[in-house]
């Protein structure tokens, strides 16, 4: 969950896999078997943990090639050929992710060598096609940059206000309970949010802007 103090830009967006999902495809090229796994990841440690997990799970395979893209800009891109000739595995995998406008995504292709060399061009095609096959069945969502707000309410008002906001254009990200109830909100309609809250609370409460945040649309 990324947040900052700038104004949201509704035109900024990127695609990623739906939370909690992964996409898998298995292909065979000249007796070599390729297993592609694509998953949403929040950061570089999570991406590297996914790669290592697949390396351990499929330790009998010869190669565990990977690529991942992170951040809305995106800010991080990495690829690894894991023993294949330079530029024949990780790079074409990364280019597939780029070509589909994806970020916060990691792809790993596990290869069991079948005894026949595929050549440079054959490897590039095999690794790219493995990722393409996995993405063909992926559940994708678009992430948008929106305003990020906090709203403090009396416990007496919290349930009613939360229900009204959820019924409109406001996403309720969470609720904390202490001396007061604190709602964490996301929306691109700041004026409408302020107006609705004031109306619902007879002017007793107003949201505080924390910055911007990226949410699934």
Automatic annotation (TrEMBL):
<dbReference type="InterPro" id="IPR020568">
    <property type="entry name" value="Ribosomal_Su5_D2-typ_SF"/>
</dbReference>
<dbReference type="GO" id="GO:0005737">
    <property type="term" value="C:cytoplasm"/>
</dbReference>
<protein>
    <submittedName>
        <fullName>IMPACT family protein</fullName>
    </submittedName>
</protein>
<dbReference type="Pfam" id="PF01205">
    <property type="entry name" value="Impact_N"/>
</dbReference>
<feature type="domain" description="Impact N-terminal">
    <location>
        <begin position="30"/>
        <end position="135"/>
    </location>
</feature>
<dbReference type="GO" id="GO:0006446">
    <property type="term" value="P:regulation of translational initiation"/>
</dbReference>
<dbReference type="InterPro" id="IPR036956">
    <property type="entry name" value="Impact_N_sf"/>
</dbReference>
<dbReference type="InterPro" id="IPR001498">
    <property type="entry name" value="Impact_N"/>
</dbReference>
<feature type="region of interest" description="Disordered">
    <location>
        <begin position="67"/>
        <end position="92"/>
    </location>
</feature>
<dbReference type="InterPro" id="IPR020569">
    <property type="entry name" value="UPF0029_Impact_CS"/>
</dbReference>
<comment type="similarity">
    <text>Belongs to the IMPACT family.</text>
</comment>
<dbReference type="InterPro" id="IPR023582">
    <property type="entry name" value="Impact"/>
</dbReference>
């Amino acid at each position: 969950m990324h947040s900052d103090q700038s104004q949201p830009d509704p035109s900024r967006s990127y695609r990623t896999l739906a939370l909690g999902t992964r996409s898998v495809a298995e292909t065979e090229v000249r007796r070599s078997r390729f297993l592609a796994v694509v998953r949403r990841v929040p950061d570089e440690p999570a991406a590297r943990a996914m790669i290592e997990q697949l390396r351990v799970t499929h330790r009998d395979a010869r190669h565990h090639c990977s690529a991942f893209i992170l951040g809305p800009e995106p800010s991080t891109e990495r690829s690894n050929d894991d023993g294949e000739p330079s530029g024949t595995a990780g790079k074409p995998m990364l280019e597939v992710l780029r070509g589909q406008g994806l970020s916060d995504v990691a792809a790993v292709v596990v290869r069991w060598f079948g005894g026949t060399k595929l050549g440079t061009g054959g490897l590039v095609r095999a690794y790219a096609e493995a990722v393409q096959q996995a993405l063909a069945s992926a559940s994708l969502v678009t992430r948008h940059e929106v305003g990020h707000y906090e709203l403090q309410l009396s416990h007496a008002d919290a349930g009613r206000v939360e229900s009204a906001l959820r019924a409109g254009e406001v996403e309720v990200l969470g609720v904390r309970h202490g001396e007061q109830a604190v709602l964490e909100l996301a929306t691109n309609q700041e004026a409408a949010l302020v107006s609705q809250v004031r109306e619902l609370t007879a002017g007793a409460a107003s949201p505080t802007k924390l910055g911007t945040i990226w949410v699934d649309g």
